[in-house]
Amino acid sequence: MSSKILKFTLNGEPVEIAVSPEDMLVDVLRDKLELTGTKKGCGKGECGACTIIMDGEAVNSCLVPAMKAMSASVETIEGIGGPGKFHPVQETFMDLGAIQCGFCTPGMIMSSKALLDKTTSPTSQEIKKALAGNICRCTGYVKIEEAVMAAAEKMREKQ
Amino acid sequence: MLQDYLFPETISEAVSFLKSNEGQARIIAGGTDLLLDIPEGKIKTSCLVDITRIPELSKITLEDGVISIGAAVTHNQAANSELIQEKAAALAQAASCVGSYQIRNSATVIGNVCNAQPAADTAVALVALGAVAEIANPGGTEYVPVEKMYAGVGKSTIDSASQLVTRVSFPAAQKKQGTAFVRLHQRKALALPMLNVAAMVALEGGKFLWARIAMAPVGPGPVRALSAEEILKGAEVTPEVIEKAAQSALEQANPRSSALRGSKEYRTSVLPVLVRRALEQAVANAGSSCK
Amino acid sequence: MKEYNVVGHSVRRLDAVEKATGTAGFTSDMKLPGMLYAKVLRSPYAHARILSIDTSEAEKLPGVKAVATHKNTPRELFNTSATMTFTVPPMVPVLDQYIFDNVVRYVGDEVAAVAAVTEKIAEAALKLIKVEYELLPAVFDPLEAMTPEAPVIHESHKKNIPGGEVIQIPYGDAEKGFAESDLIIEKTFKVPVQKQAQMETQAAVAQVGLDGKITVWSTTQTPHPTKMILAKIFSVPESKIRVLNPPYIGGGFGVRIGLSAKAEPIAVALSMLAKKPVKIVYTRKEDFIASDTRHAGYVTVKLGAKKDGAFHAMYLKAILNGGAYCSFSCETPGVLGCMGMAVYRIPNQFYYGHSVYTNTTPSGAMRGFGNPQAMYPIESVVDMMAEQLGMDPLELRLKNIMQVGDPWPLPYKCSSTGLAECIAKGARSIGWEKRGKLNKPGAKKLRGIGMGVGTHCSNAWPWCGDYDNAYITVQQDGSIHLATGVPDMGTGTSTSLPQIAAEVMGVGLDKVSITFADSASTPFTIGSHASRTLYAAGTAVVEAARDARKQVLEYAGEFLKVAPERLELKDSVIYVTGQAVGNDCSGSGVCQTGESERKSISLKELAYNAHLRNKQFIGVGRIVPDNAPPWHAHFAEVEVDTELGQIRVIKVAAVHDVGKAVNPMIVEGQIEGGVLMGIGYALSEEIKYDEKGKQLHDSFHKYMLATADDTPEIDVMIVESNDPTGPFGAKGVGETGLVPTAAAIANAVYDATGIRFTEIPLTEERVFRALAENRK
């Protein structure tokens, strides 16, 4: 198998790693870079658990060849915030009960962040559209939508 | 097995990569269909030629009343483009129905056409819009109507191992022209259509100057409702005329039974409803309403 | 109502930070040194005998470390369900599965498995295994499988009835009851195969030590019973097996009560052969085709009523499709009958039900466990009865619903009910008075409103044994550690159980931590299912905390020289309250004289003081729970596009009597998720099989569960009836959200269209056909 050197920016840091042209980005992130926050729920772009943000857009990393990340800027759940500096949407997911089993959560948060990066005043319909590719079987999406709305408000206040 | 992954910087470089690999290389744009087909063995290729970094292919342009969409334009780019929303609403609507938000961020409109699924949403819209594809061949450039790009169910006339569709072009809707797209589906995302219909109408003095209607999956690719178009041509814009046209759409439709997405009987029964709704919306978008 | 410091508050989940940052541990994320990856070869046929199997080529592939088949794995029969470890006599567990057998009984059945250094190599090796099959006749419908000419699926069960077990529950005299009834309505309903579709597929990592000790990290909802099943399969002492979650599970909904399909035994078998840790993660397709589903089947309801609307007799019958292996196929029809018989005061009832083996994916436990299959039919017939009687269906229900202390067929009491309040609140939310007045003549989109009610259990007794245990240790700094064996599959028990512990111990939630879902470091529990976790494990936690608290106060009594009865433990401080009486020898018999100058001591100081004197406070809770009925009323408003047959749910109002909401935010989340799953059950979710027994809906793309964009307004309201048997008055809530949802929607569709559907899901095509038929 021929291997290629993939160079890209991951959560703000430059990364250089050998990959095969066959590798999918989700597997490179999870197996080679050990960032297992990005989940694999179906491997076919049908559940959104593997959602990451690449050059500003939410994409299913299970359908992105690793090579497509060449020179790109990739954000994963590990890079968007943590204790002391949570992203507003992480805060509201935690505070408003938008998390249950937690398996869809990283992808859901990444889709939400991608939306909020584009607009901090999304309509309910825009939220539903932006998250419709992220399956959640636990919450019925009710508190997730509320959390995104609340995060948007937080972000508007900060602006 | 995949051995290589290339990023050509120009169209001619992309075509020459294909040529030098003698059928072993293949175009990839968004890859959301291709990357499911490769592991399943449906497509065999040793090299992917990624065209999404060729600058001119990422553009949506309007020139002399003609809109062009480059091969790297994603569904979301098309759906969110003000130009498309205003001058080709059917395409914006169709593009916003495909897959999910993430899929639409990767998947390209032209990829949707080249993958040649019978009910590819944007292909249906593009046929109604009268779109023509520009194809870069090793020997030169060729123009083919999107309608003629289907060689069979799931089969495109395009050979992505030797050809590259660079863009699709269609006339922007003018004054008193309207377009619309309607879709019957089991859920609002992550679902293929049970049926989809796109329509473009041109009105004048309370009459239809002409209409173009595409519907799917009622044949190998988007199918023109020619009888309906004929009925509408020169006819008064009335609910009765639209209804009559909608019913006649069945003359060109040959839906198959799908265990997942509706029987032939059901699809046949509701197709006229969708055609009617598409026409009503197109008329409304043309700035007129039924008398 | 009593106000508590921690209980009853919507605090942030204790696992929130880990889950919001992607650092929470799941089985599918695990990696151990030297770990191998497993892939399974599955049957392409619905029913076949394996004549020969040749693995030599696969074994030769570089990177392959072990190949397992029926030839080199234990020939020990088991049942993947946890209940086989706790089937209460005279019932006997139905053991009908091997890890691998020489007969395959459904498309997806396990034939062989490979462990290799990478997943890709394991997959490539599968293609090198040569299997010769002899095809056998197959049957897919339970009614067909009961005919004499149907193929026998298990030689030990000639009539295709798992365990031969037909459940019959007589109550009063049904025959006489119908004879005395003024009105009788009978209808048969068909219910579909629904899939749990939890986000994390079945997964396990097994490590077999050279000393024979086995550790299995997996997605099971029941580590302790799973340990018992594995011990039986591999003939290893239970004390040498440790089963745990790592510690989170990506959802469950019943799909892994017991084994996670066969993930655990396959991983263990391969690890034994390869002498390395082995990881198996089912693909989504495997999860669909080779992992339990909800039981489909046929349910008949015959309801008799007096002219004044009093229900007088009911006959309920269920024939369920059990699929190829038993799993929970004996218990599910039992719960279906019991729950169906428990909602209304009906003096004369009879239930008859059982499952039938077919050559489809095994049916097992799924949220609701038979109850949704009962309530969609029953609540439809109740609405029909209301129409026949000329009564408002809401009033008819209010007239007949079970009240506290009413006799009923269940072996525990109806100890509390807030159902009438649920009905009143839900009716207000949906605007019940608008019912029947929503449509203009000639409208092509018709609106309708409907309702459904129901109950459920709060644990698994009497359908299987049910007991629970917990430890509480006071750490040397006065913080609290709780150990309980129940998993948290997303339902929030790893937060609400510590809330209970904190409340009883008189400390803040920040002082409590929890170890859970580990068979080695926690005492036995039958796990997280049956809406039991908070109710049953919570009761054990209360007991353990009371025990620890008692020890703390006794020690503090000695320290402060007062009787423990005069001490109060609040906010981690022990205070002396009240006045000394005489020698203060009251109560515990611990007699103190000469009251100390100090009137308080912090738990921190006390615990450290105890530590210096060689003592730790260790509370033990060992309980056998009672059982209690949660109640719920759902109201739905729908719009039917009569030209296309499509139904849009506009709103669902879901009001639930949960006894006491220990964490209201978590409770709401349980109900909201259940409601959406119930909407899917009503409208779109179904797995169908083709004529060869292959699943047609074997992916998220094909299986129509709702996305965020398909979610209507869901108005959840909580009613608290404070059940006398539950911890702080709490009852079960995990499953209830989808129990009456399909019924409410089907009744709303009837209100809109005048069509009574006897089969769900109400797909576009089914509704369109019925509308067309109706127009004729």
TrEMBL record, chain A:
<dbReference type="InterPro" id="IPR012675">
    <property type="entry name" value="Beta-grasp_dom_sf"/>
</dbReference>
<keyword id="KW-0001">2Fe-2S</keyword>
<dbReference type="GO" id="GO:0046872">
    <property type="term" value="F:metal ion binding"/>
</dbReference>
<dbReference type="Pfam" id="PF01799">
    <property type="entry name" value="Fer2_2"/>
</dbReference>
<dbReference type="GO" id="GO:0050138">
    <property type="term" value="F:nicotinate dehydrogenase activity"/>
</dbReference>
<feature type="domain" description="2Fe-2S ferredoxin-type">
    <location>
        <begin position="4"/>
        <end position="80"/>
    </location>
</feature>
<dbReference type="InterPro" id="IPR001041">
    <property type="entry name" value="2Fe-2S_ferredoxin-type"/>
</dbReference>
<dbReference type="InterPro" id="IPR036010">
    <property type="entry name" value="2Fe-2S_ferredoxin-like_sf"/>
</dbReference>
<keyword id="KW-0479">Metal-binding</keyword>
<dbReference type="Pfam" id="PF00111">
    <property type="entry name" value="Fer2"/>
</dbReference>
<dbReference type="InterPro" id="IPR002888">
    <property type="entry name" value="2Fe-2S-bd"/>
</dbReference>
<comment type="pathway">
    <text>Alkaloid degradation; nicotine degradation.</text>
</comment>
<dbReference type="InterPro" id="IPR051452">
    <property type="entry name" value="Diverse_Oxidoreductases"/>
</dbReference>
<dbReference type="InterPro" id="IPR006058">
    <property type="entry name" value="2Fe2S_fd_BS"/>
</dbReference>
<dbReference type="InterPro" id="IPR036884">
    <property type="entry name" value="2Fe-2S-bd_dom_sf"/>
</dbReference>
TrEMBL record, chain B:
<keyword id="KW-0285">Flavoprotein</keyword>
<dbReference type="Pfam" id="PF00941">
    <property type="entry name" value="FAD_binding_5"/>
</dbReference>
<dbReference type="InterPro" id="IPR005107">
    <property type="entry name" value="CO_DH_flav_C"/>
</dbReference>
<dbReference type="InterPro" id="IPR051312">
    <property type="entry name" value="Diverse_Substr_Oxidored"/>
</dbReference>
<keyword id="KW-0560">Oxidoreductase</keyword>
<dbReference type="GO" id="GO:0050138">
    <property type="term" value="F:nicotinate dehydrogenase activity"/>
</dbReference>
<protein>
    <submittedName>
        <fullName>Nicotinate dehydrogenase FAD-subunit</fullName>
        <ecNumber>1.17.1.5</ecNumber>
    </submittedName>
</protein>
<dbReference type="InterPro" id="IPR002346">
    <property type="entry name" value="Mopterin_DH_FAD-bd"/>
</dbReference>
<dbReference type="InterPro" id="IPR016167">
    <property type="entry name" value="FAD-bd_PCMH_sub1"/>
</dbReference>
<dbReference type="InterPro" id="IPR016166">
    <property type="entry name" value="FAD-bd_PCMH"/>
</dbReference>
<dbReference type="Pfam" id="PF03450">
    <property type="entry name" value="CO_deh_flav_C"/>
</dbReference>
<dbReference type="GO" id="GO:0071949">
    <property type="term" value="F:FAD binding"/>
</dbReference>
<feature type="domain" description="FAD-binding PCMH-type">
    <location>
        <begin position="1"/>
        <end position="175"/>
    </location>
</feature>
<dbReference type="InterPro" id="IPR036683">
    <property type="entry name" value="CO_DH_flav_C_dom_sf"/>
</dbReference>
<dbReference type="InterPro" id="IPR036318">
    <property type="entry name" value="FAD-bd_PCMH-like_sf"/>
</dbReference>
UniProtKB/TrEMBL annotation, chain C:
<protein>
    <submittedName>
        <fullName>4-hydroxybenzoyl-CoA reductase subunit alpha</fullName>
        <ecNumber>1.3.7.9</ecNumber>
    </submittedName>
</protein>
<dbReference type="InterPro" id="IPR000674">
    <property type="entry name" value="Ald_Oxase/Xan_DH_a/b"/>
</dbReference>
<dbReference type="Pfam" id="PF01315">
    <property type="entry name" value="Ald_Xan_dh_C"/>
</dbReference>
<dbReference type="Pfam" id="PF02738">
    <property type="entry name" value="MoCoBD_1"/>
</dbReference>
<feature type="domain" description="Aldehyde oxidase/xanthine dehydrogenase a/b hammerhead">
    <location>
        <begin position="21"/>
        <end position="137"/>
    </location>
</feature>
<dbReference type="InterPro" id="IPR008274">
    <property type="entry name" value="AldOxase/xan_DH_MoCoBD1"/>
</dbReference>
<dbReference type="GO" id="GO:0005506">
    <property type="term" value="F:iron ion binding"/>
</dbReference>
<dbReference type="InterPro" id="IPR036856">
    <property type="entry name" value="Ald_Oxase/Xan_DH_a/b_sf"/>
</dbReference>
<dbReference type="Pfam" id="PF20256">
    <property type="entry name" value="MoCoBD_2"/>
</dbReference>
<dbReference type="InterPro" id="IPR016208">
    <property type="entry name" value="Ald_Oxase/xanthine_DH-like"/>
</dbReference>
<keyword id="KW-0560">Oxidoreductase</keyword>
<dbReference type="InterPro" id="IPR046867">
    <property type="entry name" value="AldOxase/xan_DH_MoCoBD2"/>
</dbReference>
<dbReference type="InterPro" id="IPR037165">
    <property type="entry name" value="AldOxase/xan_DH_Mopterin-bd_sf"/>
</dbReference>
<dbReference type="GO" id="GO:0016491">
    <property type="term" value="F:oxidoreductase activity"/>
</dbReference>
